[in-house]
Amino acid sequence: TSLRRQISQVAERCDQELGPEQPMFIEGCPADWATLPDPDGPLTVGLDGGYIHLRDESSRKAGALEVIVGKSIPTEGQPKCFGFVPGYNDKPRRRVFEALKSQGLPMNQTVLFLSDGGDTVRELQFYLSPYAEHILDWFHITMRLTVMNQTAQGLPENLGEDAPRASLQKDFERLKWCLWHGNVWRALQTMECLEGELERLADEWNLPPLTKLQRLLHEFDTYIRANRDFIPNYGDRYRYGEMISTAFVESTVNGLISKRFVKKQQMRWTRQGAHQLLQVRMHVLNEDWRTVFERWFPHMPPAEHQDWPQTWAA
After folding, report:
1. 3-state DSSP call for residue 275?
2. Residue 237: closest CA among 245, 246, 229
3. Are strands 132-136 and 80-84 parallel, antiparallel or unpaired?
């Protein structure tokens, strides 16, 4: 109980040090940015979400609680991770900006944001840098396409005189090719044709895979239309060795959330408790706890002191 209370107090003090939330954090004018030294290189920021068990006093089956996790990787230097609970934290944009600022973010540095395109993370990454580039994560695109392709494989090979399964699989491959090369307009046309074909088959044959496929395709069409401005030519980026996926954030999700909150754990969490423990784990993974405590306690002995625990205890 004492440990839990102390962790809560430390996390609360860290949150109080954050500045006020702002709709945008771009400062100065382009003329001033041109006089700044050239940055070392782009700063890559990946955003992803995770889920933990939610604790609700009224029900043991309260469902899941969403947690946003991110990781910023500079061209040179130590990467930083951050995380928060959207339903509890009231300074999400400030928290991301402070993580970038701790890595010395100047206004003239290019920042590459990669996310899954969800509503929460899509609004979070705007107006943090004037040279920001936003890209939809390729992994989440191909994952949805794989699910639809596997659902199409559950259809019979022949429905009457037609063989729609092979035709649908070719259409899904064509859709994936269009998105891989950034041709969103052609991809949307392909989905319109697929929706018409599935509607025709559903009128003739009442099959559960067809109904599921219609629902998945409609959701995917909405997903692509909402994020069409963030879909680049993935093929060109891949050939030039540029990032197209948030795979590097998966280790952060595992270290920040899964290892402590989910895997082999039967605990359920409140929004406040999960958010506060996330702040502590974030500082542990970033290896900057000592910097925080040295700011709070100016008389704390330096790290190179060999017997600092005994000295500090005295």
Report:
1. helix
2. 245
3. unpaired
